[in-house]
Amino acid sequence: WNYHRNIQHTLKERKATTLDASNNSQGVMSVLEAEKTTLSLDSLTDLNHTLSTALEGEGLTVLSALSFEKEALVIALKEGYVVLRSWPEHNYCAFDLVLWSSLEKLEAVKGGLVATVGAESTSSYNIVTGGMQGVAAGEIPTFPAERDSDAAAQTGRHAPVQTPFELGDLDAILKETIAFVQRVDPMAVVFCPGKDTPCQSLEALKGVEATVLPLWACASELFTTRDIACESTTHDVMKSALSRSKITAIVLDPAVPSKMGQVLKQVLSLLRAREELLAAQFVVLAPGLDSSRPWYRSLFEWFRTDVTTFSPSYHAQVLFRSPSRAGKLRLGIFSAGNVDFYRQLVGFTEQCHSKLGLTTEIPHVLDGKLQKMECSNLPLVANESSYDKTTAESHWTSQHPLGMQTVSRFEAGVPRGPLRVGDRVLGSIDKQAMFGRWYPARVLSVNEDGTFNLKYDTEEVERDIPRRFIRQLDVAGDLQVEEAVFVRERGGDVEYFYVGRVLEKMPDNEYKVHIHKDRGVVDVVHQQEIAAMSAPSEVSCTKLQAMLQHAVASSDATQETLAVEGAGEGCIATALWSQGSAVATWDGGSKLDLNLFT
After folding, report:
1. What is the pTM of this model?
2. Residue (of 468, 406, 518) closest to 129 by Cα position
3. If residue 12 lies in a helix (H) or strand (E), which one and from where to where?
């Protein structure tokens, strides 16, 4: 794959960037291969209907479609586009799925496409591509650790007031953790703080189907030496559980002192005591607030490395978040002897999401050592003849590629002339290059970092404005269709402008203009109410389609072309011919993506 430009921002850069529709048009392309398809690929007309139905079933909006013989099909969506290239003789097809909105549906749409053609084998690869202005772009998927808690502030939106998590919020989570216990009527020992202190975990577990035995703290943080008496008391309480069954769960209450962790380690340090007290399958759970330092981690690692050395033996950390709460909740888990641990961990997080509305993050799961396996077969002794010595060049030449795909991104930096003090300009008060209001102003001064200070006609002064939010104010002459302009509006005594695009030239020096305000309006405007952009963009939907037509015509091939608007402020232009396909998307601003297959 040749991908000439793939813009990725680090979290720090994203924080420093104003995320508006004009500067952050991003999307995702998923290149999806489907092999051994069971659906007939001979009729693209039938495929268009089937795929369009599947896409609409996933909540996407189909705008138009274009096909060429039995080779290629393009479906233009409001949220992106889909390209299908098929080779019926091989029961093979390839999809390019591009989304610049509804990005959360990416995996579901991929699954729907695969299911539609009935592929037995698939592979896919995702890359970040350009998007579309004028649509709700959504968020490029990131790992939980990259999520920015200040995102609302960065985008100018007011985040809802969040109240901090409290210990009481752990009750519902703790009740769900009983799923990790692999026995009917499990025996749980809860390590609580002193008897004069409430034990939150004990109260939370009263309603679950388990026998719960409290073990009140008998050791204090004030004593740094070993507490033999407390160890004896702890052992006796744990041993009293044996009247019903061995211990299958140990719960460390958030308020229990860390000294009790040392006591528990001493009690279980002898193999005889572990065999006497603990079931073959048991869990140790430690709920808490993530703002506190978890002292139990070293204890859990001791369980994993010294108590239950060999797998299945797992030490996991789970963090919980809520849109309405500040901070995080934490749950430490040690599990021994549970071969279904990962499946149950996934089920546990799904239950917390569906029942409690919590999102989860699992920073790590540490596994025990692998079990030694007895092998009855003699070991294989490898020699030179055991290896494939075919050269890399031979492997390459033996391949039979079906085509070559190139994804390119172009960014047309609109020429902007130099500004001097006193120049008459328009300034974007909404800091959006294609949307929002532009107010007349004069350049007050030029800053060393290349920004400008403006004085608006309203006498207000705004400082440190980037050049991209300033346009020189020029008188409009004879305007052409598709030309970008400024359209004057008045609110009381205040005069301001919106960006627009000429749709049609009318009699008497009037123009039909698409004005970029609200969700977009079309109005007839007199030339006197229009100001020209000093450097209008040379990109338009008409020119984009003409560019593809001209490029394909040079190959003397029969072609089908289509330009589709309605997916934001830009458009999708497609050309299909016998030797390949090309899809060009313009985001309505200065960015253009080209997806070329030959």
Report:
1. 0.45
2. 406
3. helix 11-16
Around Cβ 119, how many Cβ atoms within 10 Å? 20
Amino acid identity, position 300: F
Q: For residue 195, give the DSSP letter.
A: T
What is the Rg, in whole angstroms, of the alpha carbon atoms belonging to the chain? 33
Q: Is 559 helix (H, G, I), strand (E, B) or coil?
A: strand
138 φ/ψ sector (left φ>0, alpha ψ -120 to 50, else beta): left
Examine residue 312 and say whether the peptide bond preceding it is cis (omega within 30 degrees of 0). yes
Structure tokens at 369: 């050592």
Single-letter residue type at 395 = H
pLDDT in tens, 483-506: 788 898 887 778 889 888 888 888
Residues in a beta bridge with 498? 487
586 phi/psi in degrees, rounded to 5: -115, 130
Both tokens of residue 283?
């869990």
Q: Report the alpha-carbon distance of residue 214 to residue 208 in Å, rounded.
A: 15
Q: Which of 472, 469, 463 lies closest to 433, judged by CA?
A: 469
Which residue ranges of the chain lie beneath pLDDT 50? 1-24, 139-159, 536
- Tell me the two tokens of residue 131: 């998007």
User: Per residue in 248-285, is it b (16+ CB within 10 Å) or e — as a string?
Assistant: bbbbbbbbbbebbbbbbbbbbeeeeeeeebbbebbbbb
Task: Quickly tell me which residue has 């204890």 as its tokens.
Answer: 299
Q: In Å, what is the CA distance from 111 to each residue of 81, 95, 537, 549?
A: 16, 12, 39, 33
Question: Is residue 333 within a helix (H) or strand (E), and if so which, with residue range?
Answer: strand 329-336
**Do the bridges between strand 580-586 and strand 591-597 make them parallel or antiparallel, or are there none, so unpaired?**
antiparallel
Q: Which amino acid is at 591?
A: K
Residue 419's Cβ-count burial label (10 Å; 0-12, 13-18, 19+) is middle
Collect all residues with Cβ–Cβ distance below 8 Å to 507 and sequence separation of at least 6: none
Stretch (H or E) spanning 157: none
Q: How far apart are CA 186 and CA 76, in angstroms?
A: 57
Report CA torsion sign: 179, 184, 185, 187.
Answer: negative
Contacts of 468 (CB under 8 A, 6+ apart): 23, 416, 433
Kindly tell me the burial class for residue 569, based on how many C-beta atoms sit within 10 Å of its own C-beta (0-12, 13-18, 19 or more): buried
Work out the burial of residue 325: count CB atoms within 10 Å of its CB; fewer than 13 is exposed, 13-18 middle, 19 or more buried: middle
Taking the C-alpha atoms of residue 5 and residue 592, their distance in angstroms, rounded to an integer, is 11
What are 317-321's contacts with CB under 8 Å, separation 24+?
A: 317/362, 317/363, 317/364, 318/345, 318/348, 318/349, 318/360, 318/361, 318/362, 319/290, 319/360, 319/361, 319/362, 319/363, 320/173, 320/352, 320/358, 320/359, 320/360, 320/361, 321/358, 321/359, 321/360, 321/361
Tally of CB atoms within 10 A around 381: 6
Q: Report yes or no: 274 and 284 within 8 Å, Cβ to Cβ.
A: no
Q: Which two tokens stand for residue 6?
A: 């793939």
